[in-house]
Every structure is written in structure tokens, then in C-alpha cells.
Amino acid sequence: MYLKSISLQNFRNYKKTEFDFSREITLIVGPNTAGKSNLIEALFFLAKGSSFRIDKDIQLVKFKKEIARIKGKIEDSSRTFFPSDKILSNNVIEKVRDKELEVVIAKEGASEKLRPFKKYLVNGVNKRKTDFIGNFFAVLFAPNDLEIIIGSPSKRRDFIDNILIQTDRDYRLASGFYEKGLRIRNALLHKVKETGIKSEKEFVYWDNLLIIQGQKITKMREDFIKYLENSKKEVINFKIFYDKSIISKERLLQYGDAEIGAGVTLVGPHRDDFAINLIENSLRRLADDKEDHDIRFFGSRGQQRLAILQLKILELSFIEQKTLMRPTLLLDDIFSELDEKHINLVLDMIGGQQTIMSTTHEEFIPKKLLRQVSVIELRK
Predict the structure, then answer these.
(1) CB within 8 A of 201, min separation 6: which ones?
(2) Domain ranges, residue 243
(3) Is residue 270 part of a domain?
(4) What is the pTM of this model?
(5) Which of 11, 146, 196, 235 has its CA 20 to 30 A from that of 312?
(6) Is residue 115 scored above 70 in pLDDT?
(7) Residues 126 and 176 in one domain
């Protein structure tokens, strides 16, 4: 699978334009504010079905315009395995076909419904977001990925969600149901906080929904964390600890009074976190307590960047293992943030899959690599 082209209409700073991409390496070059990150954002939108930079997707529509479109053409290679006559070997038949993915984002008042909306299409056919995602896979590596290490727990949850939402339809469904249930239950809790009156009947359905879907999410996140923990780590060695917030009838009852006081649900996977702890050969010997090893507090900035790089390498291999397809690697202007040692480690990731990377200056890219790339040049 690889992305052949993308066309943008009224998306961010793009009025109407189209870009073609190499099957191997494409370099996007341009000054700041030229739209490099906007283009990377559009590419990742085709994989995740939403932006990685903002929460309200209608902000992606160009100023003074009503509707934005992102349309990507994918060459999709599906593999079918047929047992051969030889023992312990397989014949592989590979089918190649083109697929067109499109997202339409409209502001309020852009349709008869007079409200914001999004449409997802595959080969011109309307799809639910759940069925749109999974047609294209991408791994994003951006400068603000350091927030996965040093930022809030929501950044670490987003890291997991970006991967599992792409690769697991059951996870997408569970997440959608859980998010809807959480919004409604929080609204009910806020109402109770304001009025002092609680109707248990109003909570029964939503409590059960959150418990069922929340436990599915926890199990799938736990399996992914185990994959990270058990995988070989060649860049930097660490252990990863899943700090899960279990949701159950007993815990909802336990936190019942506190939830009314806060007006929000206090337990469940929306409160999950994980910690990355350097092991002894990555950090000087410290006490056995895991907090003493937490890379957030005791790792250098260089070690934190190496941990992010290692996570991204594992992300690539996980998606390939789950989908049998190598995802497209998106590198968003990371070379200006890294020293030569780290740049060389990133370049080691390139070559096993389609790679699309952006930079402000070509001189950041080694000359040897420049001979292999297709270049897109952007201007202000």
C-alpha cells in the first residue's frame, strides 16, 4: 500500500492543489508558514479520520470558505496466502488496485441542515468514520511527539489511540460508544451537582455501557502495552507500565459521591496513563522503586527523544503485523529539532516503507539521501 496523490480544496492555506508522491521517499521543502505541516496533517487525516493538531475539524476549512475537501488516491496491495505442495511454504497472490479516499468538512450553514458536518467516502461511496479508517495506514513523527513522554496523560492516551483506531475496528467501535456514553453521563453528573437530585434510573443504562465498552478498551490497550514491553528495543531499552483506570460497578459506586462533587466521571479508560522507565543499562543504577527510573523525571532530553524514536519504530512494526501492510511514514520537520546522531537514527527508519518528510531546508537532508528522493517545493 502506498499513497499515490492527494488533492486539497480549501484546506488550511490551500485553495486548490494536488500533489503526487513517490512510492519510496518524497521530500516537502519550504519556508515556515508555507503549509508543510498542513500537508502532513491532511495526509494523516486520511489514516485517522481526524486531525492530530486540533479538536474541532471545522477549523481546517480555509478562511471565508464553507467546505474543505481532502482526496487521496491509494494503491492498495492485498495479499492472499495459498498453501503449496511443499511443506512449510506458501504461495502468495498479490492483488493491486487503486482506491480513492475522500473527506468533506463543512462549516455551519454550508448545508441545508445548517450545522457543521463531515462526510467520509471510499471510491465515491459514503462510509461511516468507523469503516473509512483502516483503508490507509500512517505513522506520524513530529517535533511535538516529545509530549508523549513529558506531557499530560492525554498525550499518551492519544499515542495509543492513534495506533489502535487505525488497526482495530472493534477498538474504533468501542471508543465511539464509550465517548458518547461518557459525554451523556458527565452531563447527568453535572445536572446532579447543580440540582442535588439524582435519579438512579437515568444512570443504569449509561453505567452499563461505559463498563462494557470501557473494559474492551482496557483489554485492547493492555495487549498493545504488552506488545511494546515484549518487543526488542534496539535504540534504547526501557520498560513500560500501564497505569489503567479500571471501570466496574464497584468502582463507580466507590467514587459515586466524589463524581457528583466533581460533576464528571472519575474512573475509566479516559483516565488511563502509562510510564516509560529506563532500565539499568540505559541509566545509572537507581533505587528499585519504578518512579526513580521514570524517563520523565530522570532521563535527559536526548534519552527522551530516543524513547520517542523507539516507540515510533515499534509503531511501524505493530501496524505491519496487524494489517500485513507497511504504513506510510510521515516525518514533519523533525530534522531541524534533532542533532546529527538522532537524524542518522531516524534515517535508518527510512527505506522499509513509503516515506513523506518535510523540512525548511534541503541541507538538513544528507546529500546521499537527496539523490533518492522526489522533491515537492512549497512557497509562501
Answers:
(1) none
(2) 144-298
(3) yes
(4) 0.88
(5) 11
(6) no
(7) no
